């Protein structure tokens, strides 16, 4: 049984319905040796199979929103340095994973996807910061007529959208915060993030939770009150079977969900 709709969800229209189905392709429908992650080809492939799409967005040196996950360029482009130190034009000339695909802008990605798929846009705003990326994404969404949601780990990004663009569906990301990057944070902050203490700040419409948090009694309480739960990143049918009774949808990769 999925989370029951809460009053006010009608403002999200089709985006609310597509939050529950179909499954969401993580960084598009990409494959090793095929379409690279977060590429236009991966988004085309997801649309062709009828999936929703999750993608990552961050700002360039000239203030443009581009689709790319990592802070640094090495893993996917072979170039050195940070994405934020390059312009959108420079990034648009970089080849992804030795293919002809390049780093797309968010506007180009949404133009390719159109109304064919629900898009969950993960805002890569550093924790505690807010402003330029949120404004840029909000401006771009004005010209997009497909179902959309913004997601991310920074509760202040969600609070910004709640105040400035409340008709956009918002999903707060979280996980166990026990990996190498998380261990660099102050212990009290890690405990707070892992315990979902940021919900009050973010005011999200749904939660996107890592598999290391599921099943979660705390998440079950939110879900019982009408806040859907999306699991990430699910990489096998067995992983989904283990948590599906506590979730409403999945962000997946590596298998046909």
Protein model, in words:
The chain has one domain: TIM Barrel, CATH 3.20.20. It is 31% helix and 18% strand. The chain has helices at residues 14-18, 40-49, 74-77, 88-92, 106-113, 132-141, 155-164, 187-194, 199-202, 217-224, 237-243; strands at residues 24-26, 52-59, 65-67, 119-123, 148-152, 169-174, 206-210, 229-234, 249-252. It has an 8-stranded parallel β-barrel with strand order 1-2-4-5-6-7-8-9, surrounded by 6 helices. Strand 2 and strand 3 form a beta hairpin. Helix 2 (40-49) packs parallel to helix 5. The protein is globular, with a radius of gyration of 17 Å. This is Glycerophosphodiester phosphodiesterase.
Characterize the main sheet. Answer: 8 strands, parallel, barrel
* Number of individual domains: 1
Q: Please, how many helices?
A: 11
> Can you identify the CATH class?
Alpha Beta
The CATH H-level homologous superfamily: Phosphatidylinositol (PI) phosphodiesterase
Query: What is the CA-atom radius of gyration, in angstroms?
Result: 17 Å
Strand order of the largest sheet: 1-2-4-5-6-7-8-9
Under CATH, the topology can be stated as TIM Barrel
Low-confidence residue ranges:
none
Strand content: 15-25%
Say how many strands there are.
Answer: 9
Order of helices and strands: HEHEEHHHEHEHEHHEHEHE
Class by SSE composition? alpha/beta
Question: What integer is the average pLDDT?
Answer: 94
Helix coverage percent: 25-40%
Secondary-structure arrangement, i.e. CATH architecture: Alpha-Beta Barrel
Measured between the Cα atoms of the first and last residue, the distance is: 19 Å
InterPro entries: GP_PDE_dom, PLC-like_Pdiesterase_TIM-brl
GO molecular function, one term: phosphoric diester hydrolase activity
Organism: Caulobacter flavus
GO biological process, one term: lipid metabolic process
């Amino acid at each position: 049984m999925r989370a029951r709709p809460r009053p006010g969800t009608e403002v999200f229209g089709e985006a609310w319905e597509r939050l529950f189905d179909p499954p969401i392709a993580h960084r598009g429908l990409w494959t090793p040796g095929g379409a690279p992650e977060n590429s236009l080809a991966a988004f085309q492939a997801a649309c062709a199979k009828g999936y929703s799409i999750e993608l990552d967005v961050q700002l360039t040196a000239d203030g443009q929103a581009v689709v790319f996950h990592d802070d640094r360029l090495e893993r996917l482009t072979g170039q050195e340095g940070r994405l934020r130190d390059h312009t959108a034009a420079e990034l648009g000339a970089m080849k992804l994973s030795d293919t002809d695909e390049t780093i797309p802008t968010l506007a180009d990605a949404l133009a390719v996807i159109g109304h064919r798929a629900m898009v969950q846009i993960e805002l890569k705003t550093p924790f505690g910061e807010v402003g330029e990326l949120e404004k840029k994404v909000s401006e771009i969404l004005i010209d997009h007529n497909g179902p959309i949601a913004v997601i991310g780990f920074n509760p202040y990004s969600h609070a910004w959208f709640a105040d400035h663009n409340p008709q956009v569906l918002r999903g707060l990301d979280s996980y166990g915060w026990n990996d190498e990057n998380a261990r660099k944070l102050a212990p009290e902050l890690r405990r707070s993030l892992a315990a979902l203490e940021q919900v009050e700040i973010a005011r999200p419409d749904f939660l996107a939770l890592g598999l290391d948090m599921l099943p979660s009694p705390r998440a079950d309480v939110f879900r019982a009150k009408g806040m859907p739960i999306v699991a990430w990143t699910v990489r096998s049918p067995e992983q989904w079977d283990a948590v599906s009774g506590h979730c409403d949808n999945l962000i997946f990769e590596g298998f046909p969900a």
